[in-house]
Here is the input.
Amino acid sequence: MDFRKVVQALAYLASKQPDHMIDAWKAYKLLWIADRYHLRQYGRMITGDTYHALPHGPVPSDAKNIIDGQPLSYMTAIDGYVEKYLRKDSLRARSYHSTDEQDLRVFSKTDLDALDRVLELYGAWDCKQLEEFSHQYPDWKKYEKGIQTEGKKASYPIDVKLFFTNPQHDECPLFNTDEPELLALTKDMYLQTHRA
Here is the structure.
């Protein structure tokens, strides 16, 4: 996980919404779509975050911890970095604002292109629409029965290799045009760099 990129991606998503404010759960879904898309196109995610399947869909774990003000388990956050770019909304518990300042230098051109494409296609969707959209993907479907059994407390680490798998009926213009050769290549690139 790249701490700075996660913070900046959260800030970037909020900066493109009215009043620079976004519901955190909406941001998590947009980030999931962007990471999934970028991984399939280029063999790496934008943020490198770990994802968990929760009742409302895939959630980037470190992004959620950052927004919730929780400590990150394996690294120390840079003092004041989050507060410089993000602030919680005092009236809406699940929402946050981006500040006027951003550091887009942390992103590659393809990172920003992916975020922009996701915002163009899904930036106007609400949380419920994004949740329903995410529930059709193997990244969540694989864990659906366990989630339904456990309810609100369910949380399953997502195997990122599932990001390369298509659902039975995929109407997403970001995913349904992928060539099998490209997916095989980017999956191989990902596996080469993430061998245990």
